[in-house]
Design a protein that fits this description.
This protein is an alpha+beta fold. It has helices at 25-31, 103-113, 115-132, 160-168, and strands at 5-23, 37-38, 57-68, 71-82, 86-94, 99-100, 136-157.
């Protein structure tokens, strides 16, 4: 398995925060300058469980550099505002080409212990709340009402045979 390498992949770190009793999404759209789009989840019949009466508004935020995999990685940031008072962030970190598959466990632990991600997320949330202003109805940033999770997406490996061996173990 030491020869198994990731040739294409990414890590997505999610943070969701309860920030208000409600968010006026129409006002969010009018306040945002560019990069705003309404999320459409119901275009596929199997997505019925994810339909929203008022779909969230998503937009790209300025990214940042993060030291990971022994190099500086450009992190892409996507925010979503939900009408029920939640703001979410997704941090997209590309996995460098030819990263050893076994290296992901160490990276996962490092990221899980890394409080700088939470600090960065809270900075983004405070900035969003300030910029969205009156679109945030009865604002209340409740840090204790937050969710966080991390997803590792391996899109391509260097060896199909090594991947099959991994699955057989």
């Amino acid at each position: 398995m030491d020869t198994l390498k990731i040739t294409k992949g990414k890590i997505v770190i999610y943070r969701l925060y309860d920030v208000a009793s409600e968010i006026d999404l129409s006002l969010v759209e009018s306040k945002a300058n560019e990069g705003v789009r309404r999320l459409r989840l119901s275009r596929y019949p199997y997505m019925k469980a994810l339909e929203f009466t008022d779909p969230p508004v998503s937009f790209v935020l300025p990214g940042f550099q993060k030291r990971i995999f022994n190099e500086d990685i450009s992190v892409k940031v996507i925010a979503k505002a939900y009408d029920f008072g939640v703001l979410s962030l997704a941090f997209y970190l590309p996995v460098p080409q030819d990263t050893a598959f076994t290296h992901l466990e160490r990276v996962a632990k490092d990221l899980d212990d890394d409080i700088s991600i939470d600090k960065k997320a809270q900075e983004y949330i405070k900035h969003l709340m300030h910029n969205l202003g009156s679109a945030i109805i009865q604002p209340s940033f409740k840090k204790e009402f937050s969710e966080d999770y991390m997803v590792f997406m391996v899109e391509k490996l260097n060896s199909e045979m090594e991947a099959i061996k991994l699955l057989d173990e």
